[in-house]
Design a protein that fits this description.
Layout lengths: L1 H33 L7 H4 L7 H5 L1 E8 L2 E7 L8 E5 L3 E2 L2 H12 L3 E5 L3 H6 L7 E7 L4 E10 L4 E6 L5 E5 L10 H4 L12 E8 L7 E8 L2 E3 L5 E2 L1 H12 L5 E2 L5 H12 L3 E7 L4 E6 L16 E6 L6 E4 L24
Antiparallel strand pairs: 1-2, 1-6, 2-3, 3-4, 5-9, 6-7, 7-8, 8-9, 10-11, 10-15, 11-12, 12-13, 14-18, 15-16, 16-17, 17-18
């Protein structure tokens, strides 16, 4: 009796193993047969993108709202050096590279899955309390607002909704951390915004522009750079110098000025200590007036005689810089000169 019972148990366990093996085989075959293809044709892949390229290219205004504020940007056609301007909360040149990065990120967003835009999903994916919104406005004043909801830190994905579409999208999270961007992040604090590769001439005058006041010259002559008296300059040294100017940034922009402050700034710039003139290969001419050291400015907290004002011709507002960077405008041509080998033996 005992032997017969053990045989029955062995047979039962064998059948159970065979049953589970069959289930696993059928399930595996089913999932493999019905799974989505890995390679997606170009015609189909465009439907995985949240935005079409034409939508991003046609954006004229961008509004970003996060926990740190609401920032409104407008595309500017009048100033190629700063193609984006901030118009709110302050009217200032925008960090155009950052705005372009945000638009590029949005253009690359891929949809993982689509969900119904119903109250349950809106609440589950935290879209009813969205702390981050991006509004895109095209040239026809058509606006589309993108709301960001719950973020999944495990796979770096998030859930979003578009104001002009009745759906919730599960997407790959964009690379730029939009929630941490503040006013300082969006303002372009550069003084010299020219394209380094397009510069053909830079002149620095002591005081007003005149031949007698010319203190520094670097001018392109074919593939080479020359200074005063047509003396050859080291190309790499000139590029390094221009790059240093392009890296100068101001901690203080005088964008909100009283009548008294405006008058004081005008007086300081009336007789500049230096005047810089930059010309590019399109014959565009940029001038930069540099004041002497500032004793004080009405309504502005500054150390006496520790700062100066610089007014670029392509910017609406003057900038304040510390006197430590004045050395950049007192560069000697001698340091940039290239001496031919033969001259060393004369």
């Amino acid at each position: 009796m005992l032997i017969r019972l053990e045989v029955k148990k062995s047979t039962l366990s064998t059948w159970m193993i065979l049953f589970f093996a069959a289930v696993l085989f059928i399930t595996g075959f089913y999932s493999d047969f019905f799974q989505a293809p890995i390679d997606i044709s170009p015609e189909m892949s465009r439907y995985r993108s949240l935005f079409q390229p034409s939508q991003i290219l046609g954006v004229r205004e961008l509004i970003l709202k996060n926990n740190l504020g609401t920032f409104h940007f407008e595309k500017s056609s009048s100033n190629p050096d700063t193609p984006w301007m901030m118009i709110s909360p302050r009217k200032l040149p925008a960090n155009s590279s950052l705005v372009k990065t945000i638009l590029k990120d949005l253009n690359n967003v891929q949809i993982r899955s689509v969900h119904a835009n119903d109250p349950i999903n809106i609440a589950n994916y935290s879209l009813d309390t969205a702390s981050l919104e991006v509004t895109l406005i095209n040239s026809n004043d058509k606006a589309s607002t993108l709301k960001f909801g719950l973020i999944n830190p495990l796979d770096n994905s998030t859930y979003v909704s578009l104001s002009d579409q009745d759906a919730i999208y599960h997407i790959d999270n964009i690379s730029t951390t939009l929630n941490t961007l503040d006013l300082a992040s969006f303002v372009d604090t550069r003084i010299f915004t020219f394209d380094l590769s397009s510069v053909t001439s830079i002149k620095i005058y002591r005081g007003q522009e005149s031949r007698n006041n010319l203190n520094f010259l670097a001018e392109k002559n074919g593939l080479n750079w020359v200074g005063q008296k047509n003396l050859m300059l080291k190309t790499e040294a000139v590029k390094e110098y221009l790059g240093g100017l392009a890296d100068l940034r101001s901690p203080l922009i005088l964008d909100r000025v009283s009548e008294e402050l405006a008058k004081a700034v005008e007086q300081y710039l009336e007789k500049p200590s230096f005047l810089i003139v930059v010309t590019d290969n399109n014959k565009n001419k940029y001038t930069y007036k540099i004041s002497g050291l500032v004793r004080n400015l009405p309504g502005v907290k500054l150390e006496k005689w520790q700062n100066f004002i610089i007014q670029p011709s392509n910017r609406e507002f003057p900038y304040v810089l510390n006197k430590k960077v004045l050395g950049a405008f007192q560069r000697s041509e001698r340091r940039l000169r290239s001496f031919p080998v033969k001259k060393l033996f004369y």
